[in-house]
Design brief:
single chain, elongated, mainly alpha, 69% helix
């Protein structure tokens, strides 16, 4: 009822082992110009909202504590 009719079939253990063995013999991918910058920007895009949220909440806690003690 909740599954799609044309749902992809799962990969078998034999197929997974064959893919791993094939990957062992292939050369690693080379980075192109600008790939490192793209990875850094993607990391910022992923982690920066969490850092801002955590830092902002810590700042608000600090601000409330200093306001209570100051009065």
């Amino acid at each position: 009822m909740f599954l799609r009719r044309n749902q992809k079939r799962r990969i078998t253990k034999e197929e997974a082992d064959a893919i791993i063995e094939k990957a062992k013999s292939e050369e690693p991918l080379e980075l192109e110009k600008g790939d490192m910058l793209a990875m850094v920007l993607a990391a910022f895009r992923v982690f920066l909202p969490f850092v801002l949220l955590l830092g902002g909440s810590m700042f608000l806690v600090w601000w409330f504590i200093t306001r209570i003690w100051a009065s």
